[in-house]
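Hey, I'm writing a tutorial for new members on how sequence and structure tokens pair up, and I'd like a real worked example in the thread rather than a made-up one. If someone can provide the structure for the chain below, I'll link this post from the tutorial.
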Amino acid sequence: MSYSSEREKYLNAYPYCGAWALGVSVYNCTLKATEIHHKSGRIGDLLDDPKYFIGLCHNCHCYFELHPELAYENGISIKRLNNK
């Protein structure tokens, strides 16, 4: 299955911002998941493995991309060495 179809399938199954669901959303969270954050990065098979996806709104996605340590602390991202 292609990444775009995995992405669409995931966002349909999980329509709410994952940061909001975890209680760590930013002040301007829109609540609707519109983007996929790859919790362990996008290298190799991680690109289209939904096990490492989290749907985020654009605002939360931008925030956690700019603040990776907060993303790790709050379960938005995981270290690659821990995912195998």
